[in-house]
Amino acid sequence: MSNRRFRIMKHRKCKYIFVTGGVLSGVGKGITAASIGSILKAKGYKVTMQKCDPYLNVDAGLLNPVEHGECYVTADGMETDLDLGHYERFTGIKTTRENSVTTGRIYLSVIEKERRGDFLGKTIQVVPHITDEIKHRIKLKASKEDLDFVITEIGGTIGDIESQPFLEAIRQLRWELGQENALNIHLTYVPFLAAAGELKTKPTQTSVKQLQGLGIQPEVLILRSEHELSDDLRSKVAHFCNVDLKSVIQSQDLPSIYEVPVNMLKQGLDEVILKKMGLPIGKQPELGAWREFLDRRKKATKVVKIALVGKYGLQDAYKSILESLAHAGTYNDRKVETVFVSSEDINKENVEVKLEGFSGIVIGPGFGQRGINGKLIAAEYARTHNKPTFGICLGMQMMVVEFARNVLGFKDADSSEMNPDTSHNVIDMMEEQKKVTNLGGTMRLGLYGCKLKENSKVFEAYGNISEVQERHRHRYEFNSKYKKDFENAGMQCTGVNSESELVEIVEIPSLKWYIGTQFHPEYSSTVLKPHPLFMSFIKACI
Ligand code: GLN
Q: Residue 393 CA: which ligand 1 atom is closest?
């Protein structure tokens, strides 16, 4: 048998699950999709998860975090929606650029093809050209890797104008792939009318009717609600929506998002999906380590308070940092309470009052001048009061600037991002960035190797390994010209890029825990594998 034939035979047949949402946005489509992914993974399947975002941006890199939440970065350097973070944290899979699709990216690639002349003579239309491109992107990952399942979450809510092409694409795919190879799961919201004391199913019925009008029959319904749904109510939904009762799953509000997979498993969602897709049902996964995490989380009642100093006043803007702190808290048997402290409100006079009650401080990532002074004052306070402090990306850069100003005595030291005319540009634009003119997708992005200095705190935190891989998203760097000055004065460069001398980590060894990383460790902390730096930071805070 030729090698090629053997390869083709070995290739698994991939199945597709589409997750759509109805009634209103923000009911937890990302968490639902991630939970389905984690259940199938626990069953032993090779799973990947994908997000289709209806917005016209080519990627999430230039979206305002206050409007849209954090920009998550994949290992291969794609700037994506924060839902990819949920996918990784729940399933432990590593996402790449194929896992994120936006309308902007679809149109860009279709228009580029049109300009190249690929469609010569044809009129380019939403159907079939845009929908074909969407279908191609949905299937792309499985054409490169052996996968059992691709779970695709369609962003937006049924009824949105922007998501129509995506819905048309999944309608076609379901038809082309057949019942056992494609499955539609629809998440809706069941509101509780307090005055009537009743849960209302009408919005769910309407949403399903809208989907049916587009030619999509959901095969599984997941009903999000604040209260428990009775069998009667589920039965009514099943009856009105052409879905069997077992496939109407309820997703009640739970104390933690990480309880969602367990709750779905309890209702037999694994069985429902596998049966519909013609796969053996097998034993229910035990989710041993997962349940242990939940158990430990519940038992961890002692609180450790962390201040997150940043300027983006929206919880979702620092999603991965919050989750990483929470993971590390659980594994240290503590409940982490992270309080956002706006860097714009911090000044010399109030810094003590603002920060003294915390066991540790995180100085967050960010861009631009706004809120910088507060970050510098927080760094100085933390350094001079020996508070465990973790600076991430811009946070690390501000630790460096503060040290240069107040310890090295370079009074005008700055990052050239904030002051291009400073005579002490201790943080400077990276050489390869100087010729960049476009802002979208042009930073230093994704995974790079970092060599750790032996006997440093980070070396110990990572478990005495000499090299790690971490994800990046920045345009400026530590100016190596000043390395000696810093090291002589007590701030050590304990991690450098494996190929260049680019400084990735600084720390002050004489302090309890004062570490800044140019990279973003928060992108790679998962429920079952908390990040070693967050673990070590929380330990120090305790
Ligand atoms: N603005 C800084 C840079 O571009 C830091 C970026 C960040 O915090 N992600 O280098």
A: 8
Residue with token string 């910088």: 372
Tens digits of pLDDT across the chain (542 residues): 444 444 444 456 899 999 999 999 889 999 999 999 999 999 999 999 999 999 999 999 999 999 999 999 999 999 999 999 999 999 999 999 999 999 999 999 999 999 999 998 999 999 999 999 999 999 999 999 999 999 999 999 999 999 999 999 999 999 999 989 999 999 999 999 999 999 999 999 999 999 999 999 999 999 999 999 999 999 999 999 999 999 999 999 999 999 999 999 999 999 999 999 999 999 889 899 999 999 999 999 999 999 999 999 888 999 999 999 999 999 999 999 999 999 999 999 999 999 999 999 999 999 999 999 999 999 999 999 999 999 999 999 999 999 999 999 999 999 999 999 999 999 999 988 888 888 888 899 999 999 999 999 999 999 999 999 999 999 999 999 999 999 999 999 999 999 998 999 999 999 999 999 999 999 999 999 999 999 999 999 99
Between the CA of 502 and the centroid of ligand 1 the distance, in Å, is: 15
Mutating to test ligand 1, I would choose from 417, 445, 472 the residue with most ligand atoms within 8 A of its C-beta, which is 417
CA angle 232, 233, 234 (to 5 degrees): 95
Between the CA of 359 and the centroid of ligand 1 the distance, in Å, is 26
Ligand 1 nearest atom to the CA of residue 477, by list position: 10
Residues known to be catalytic: 393, 520, 522
Q: Compute how many other C-beta atoms are within 10 angstroms of the C-beta atom of residue 482.
A: 22
Q: Is the pTM of this model over 0.90?
A: yes
Q: How far is CA 402 from the centre of its chain?
A: 30
Rg of the chain (C-alpha set)? 25
Closest CA to ligand 1's atom 6: 474
Region of 501 on the Ramachandran plot (φ > 0 left; ψ -120 to 50 alpha; else beta): alpha
Task: Give, for ligand 1, the residue of 397, 398, 399, 504 to mutate: max count of ligand atoms closer than 8 Å to Cβ.
Answer: 397
Kindly list the distances between the CA atom of residue 534 and the CA atoms of 82, 385, 507, 538, in Å, as whole numbers in the listed order.
19, 20, 15, 6
CA of 501 to the centre of ligand 1 (A): 18
Task: Please work out, in degrees rounded to the nearest 5, the angle formed at the alpha carbon of residue 510 by the alpha carbons of 506 and 511.
Answer: 80
Write down how long the chain is. 542
449 alpha carbon to ligand 1 midpoint, in Å? 18
Residues lining ligand 1, judged by CB closer than 6 Å?
365-367, 393-394, 417, 473-476
